[in-house]
Amino acid sequence: MAKAAQKTGIVEAERHPALAGRNASAAHVTLTALEPAERISLRAPEASLAALSKALGLTLPKKPKTSTSKGGRTALWLGPDEWLVIDDAGGDLLADCAKVKQLHSAVGVSHRNVAIGVTGPGAETTLNAGCPQDLSLAAFPVGGCSRTIFGKVEIVLYRTAEDAFRVECWRSFSDYVFTFLSEAARDAAA
Amino acid sequence: MLLIRCPYCEEERPELEFRNAGEAHIARPTDIAAISDDDFEKFFFIRQNPKGIIYERWRHLHGCARFFNAVRDTVSDKFVMTYKAGEPKPSKLPGVSK
Ligand SMILES: [Zn+2]
């Protein structure tokens, strides 16, 4: 290995996403290990939001439990001065934030998180096996998002459609979350 | 499961998302090196632990992650109300007679 690297001058790194290739489906639910994405944890005071929104190309949401989406990017409200921004279109979130002079903290967490798609008429029931929040459409509408818990793990939950959720969890917990979801999916009625 | 209203999330959320963070409205001495051992003991260790209404700090750890204050009845475990960190102790409590 070392010799080969010396010869070519290139050390090749092979990336294995934590849940690569893991999928599961039950009668009413499909679980998908979602594609890797760019992510930042963004902290900023009110006075910086206009400039950050402009740089990111989407308006950072200010209302609890809401999100905004534009051009493959989604900003999820996590707290009064905290957002999780996800880019699925290959954009560079950190570079965009670096242009902003106003006070903020943008930390790259692309590889910290793993995303799992939970879709189908039984998605809500499947998630409620481990998440104590009210996930009815009235309490958790499409576009709604929240940091919460799933079993013994902290997750960020984002509802992408009436019967579809995106679960973001830290990669070292992803095996636990996926296995828990798979078991819950088997029991979930529509 | 208890439902606790987070003043930042503006809704009731399951208790599993929260952590208790001790008694509220304890002011840290401005010059801690200047106070006597007795005063330090009072500030640092002595807590009211009342039977009945208590003012506590809570943190919405697995939610918005903010600290806030809550008024709780230690007999019934009922939350009377919650309010944002830094706001004054409420003078009137809803549904409490004394
Ligand atoms: Zn909250």
Describe this structure in words.
The complex is a heterodimer of chains A (190) and B (98). With 190 residues, chain A is an alpha+beta fold. Chain A has one domain: Gyrase A, domain 2, CATH 3.30.1360.120. Chain A is built from five helices and eleven strands, in the order H-E-E-E-H-E-E-E-H-E-E-H-E-E-E-H. Chain A has helices at 2-8, 49-56, 93-98, 123-128, 174-187; strands spanning 23-25, 30-33, 38-43, 67-70, 73-79, 82-87, 105-108, 113-119, 145-150, 153-161, 164-170. In chain A, the strands form two sheets. In chain A, strands 1-2-8-11-10-9 form a six-stranded antiparallel beta sheet. The relative contact order of chain A is 0.20. Chain B is mainly beta. Helices cover 8% and strands 34% of the residues of chain B. In chain B, the strands form two sheets. A four-stranded antiparallel beta sheet of chain B has the order 3-4-5-6, with no helix packed on it. In chain B, strands 1-2 form a two-stranded antiparallel sheet. Chain B is globular. The A-B interface holds A 64-65, 78-80, 82, 132-133, 139, 146-149, 154 and B 1, 8-11, 13-14, 16-17, 62-66. Zinc ion is lined by residues 6, 8-9, 60, 63-64, 66 of chain B.
